[in-house]
Amino acid sequence: MSTDFNKCILEGRLTSDAEKITVKDFIIAKFSIACNKTKKINNEYTDTVSFFDVTSIVTDKQLNFMKKGIHVLIEAEAKQNRWEADGKTNSRIVFEAKTIKFLNSSSQTSEVNGSESIPDVINYDDIQIDTDSYFG
């Protein structure tokens, strides 16, 4: 049995404070990020935004930094969640973050978190838990 390559890089800002979900002894952060793109069409620049749902294993301290507007760079795996409702099969893509790097400047960080320093990186590449039943 082979495993295909599944790695995504996303950069954006949290659209709201991360939601805390506890699964066994793990804290899962559930949040969305907005990724902005500017493209030129007929000599005019147009801004578009895409929204992506993300989950990540975090500590309580790390969760405290995951506030609306925080700028992050995420390395993740795309995961398709499937479920049935009303006789119809539904699906959606969720990104499971393996690494989250905080990109905010120190002045933005202190505005969000007082004097506490923000962690550079959250890395949970080696931890695997099944979150299918928690994120439909």
Can you describe what's shown?
By secondary structure, this protein is mainly beta. It is built from 2 helices and 7 strands. A 5-stranded mixed β-barrel has the order 1-3-4-6-5. Strand 3 (26-41) and strand 4 (44-58) form a beta hairpin. The chain starts with 7 loop residues before the first strand and ends in a 13-residue tail after the last strand. The relative contact order is 0.22.
Number of beta strands: 7
Low confidence ranges: 107-116, 132-136
Strand-residue proportion:
over 45%
Q: What is the terminal separation in angstroms?
A: 27 Å
What's the SSE pattern? EEEEHEEHE
Mean of residue pLDDT values: 82
Radius of gyration using CA atoms only:
17 Å
> For the largest beta sheet, what order do the strands appear in spatially?
1-3-4-6-5
Enumerate how many helices there are, as a single number: 2
Main sheet properties: 5 strands, mixed, barrel
Helical content band: 10-25%
Q: What best-fitting shape do the alpha-carbon axes yield?
A: globular
Overall structural class, as computed from helix and strand content, comes to: mainly beta
Please outline the helices and strands.
Elements (H helix, E strand, L loop, with lengths): L7 E7 L4 E5 L2 E16 L2 E15 L1 H6 L5 E15 L2 E15 L3 H8 L7 E3 L13
Parallel strand pairs: 4-6
Antiparallel strand pairs: 1-3, 1-5, 2-3, 3-4, 5-6, 6-7
